[in-house]
Amino acid sequence: MSDTRRFTVAALSRVEGEGALRVRVQDGQVEIAEFNIYEPPRFFERFLRGREIREVPDLVARICGICPVAYQMSACHALEKALGIRTTPAIETLRRLLYCGEWIQSHALHVPLLHAPDFLGFESGFTMAVDHPALVESGLRLKAIGNRIMEVIGGRAVHPINIAVGGFYRAPSSAAVQDLLPDLEWGLGRSLELVAEVSRFEFPDVHDDYESVSLRHVHEYPMNDGRVVSSGGLDIPVEDFSAHFEERQVAWSTALHAVRLPGGTPYLTGPTARMNLCRDRLPDAARRAADACGLEMPVRNSFRSIVARCVELVAAFSEAIAIVRDCRADIAPCRIEFTPRAGVGCHATEAPRGLLYHRYEIGADGLIAAATIIPPTSQNQGQIERELHRMLPDWLALDDAAATHECERLIRNYDPCISCATHFLRLDISRGSDKRV
Predict the structure, then answer these.
(1) pLDDT at 436 exceeding the cut of 70
(2) pLDDT of residue 424
(3) 364-414, pLDDT tens digit by residue?
(4) Cys-Cys with 106: which of 5, 134, 352, 405 at CB 3.0–4.6 Å?
């Protein structure tokens, strides 16, 4: 008689958005391990069509409340390429400070509040706060600092309103920027302590030879710019992205799965991938912190992604401090004007969770004719399912509740932003046996 076990997680906890997990084991063999994103498709790519160029940054920010800047920056850079706009170094520096704010608030939310409970044996950050109040309180303060940067530069912390194609609608005063410095200096010290703390967690002894993919910049740790590189030897301009990566629809998810071409293989993007490919571009303080905590390179254990995120917190604070200290005057001009025209542009930036690709076509009428947005979570889904398939045999001796918990822990290693991923390009409706409309 065959032995069938099923694990079902109707709603994953401690991740952004709504997702589920379905696992089926038949006679000791894992048949199905499906990371099911069931949030309704949101059709951002479709309803961007026909919109004015200036509307795009505000619209795409609504894709995510945690990483809106990533969507705004990818969109602005892509549209600026299509329009032939060249921004100034001062504008790009301010954009980098804004992106630091987003990395800080996102990593500070995930590490102490969403991920650390898995290692310390707590159901949530709320229950963990009883025994580890300093960890939770400092995490909230770190997040508040990131939010404050986004308020000063972007106008507000969630869905910033000061971001424009060509720059910013209004430049913050140099005094407002410099007022950030005391909190940033505290944040750098606390993030260095956090690297040491999380590196002492107990990590499962696992290893996976995944392919890492990220941007790589000529001299900076990647945020707003760079070439697309991989641990498999890929090194291409962003303009060639579609020749090497493809999104595919799967039956069990409203999110597309991105794969590497030509083989259709999964890959990893995010903090661990960036560390593996760009460690030499880290600011000195972050590189020293990675060395001091004994983080082995390349990182092949997804559970150690929490350490990589903490190292990136150090990097973001270090970068932000350097920018703020150098800010001596208000930026003028803060925005480069443009005249709408037909064109095509694509760009990728590094969202907190990984590479984010945007491509836009502008029609002869100056309106958006087509849009493609490939978020980090859709790129990581194949790798998540691959690792679930690989790890589940080790958990089959556990009871269903314990095995389910291990699956959830693994998924949280990737910090999936589910709302970002819920988009698809084609809707097939079956009516009868063979008909499709």
Answers:
(1) no
(2) 34
(3) 999 999 999 999 988 998 998 899 888 888 887 888 778 878 888 888 898
(4) 352
Q: Which residues of 179-188 are buried (b: 16+ CB within 10 A; e: fewer)?
A: ebeebbeebb
Q: What is the CATH number of domain 44-399?
A: 1.10.645.10
Structure tokens at 410: 């693994």
Residue-level pLDDT at 53: 97
Q: Is the pTM of this model over 0.70?
A: yes
SS (H, E, C) the chain: CCCEEEEEECCCCCCECCEEEEEEEECCEEEEEEEEECCCCCCHHHHCCCCEHHHHHHHHHCCCCCCHHHHHHHHHHHHHHHHCCCCCHHHHHHHHHHHHHHHHHHHHHHHHHHHHHHHHCCCCHHHHHHHCHHHHHHHHHHHHHHHHHHHHHHCCCCCCCCEECCEECCCCCHHHHHCCHHHHHHHHHHHHHHHHHHHCCCCCCCCCCCCEEEEECCCCCCCCCCEEEECCCCEECHHHHHHHEEEECCCCCCCCEEEECCCCECCECCHHHHHHHHHHHCCHHHHHHHHHCCCCCCCCCHHHHHHHHHHHHHHHHHHHHHHHHCCCCCCCCCECCCCCCCEEEEEEEEECCEEEEEEEEECCCCEEEEEEEECHHHHHHHHHHHHHHHHHHHHCCCCHHHHHHHHHHHHHCCCCEHHHHCCCCCCCCEECCCEEC
- The stretch 44-57 carries a mean pLDDT of 93
- Mean local confidence (pLDDT), 150-171: 96
- Residue 33 pairs in a beta bridge with 23
Residue 426: predicted pLDDT: 31
More confident call, 314 vs 257: 314
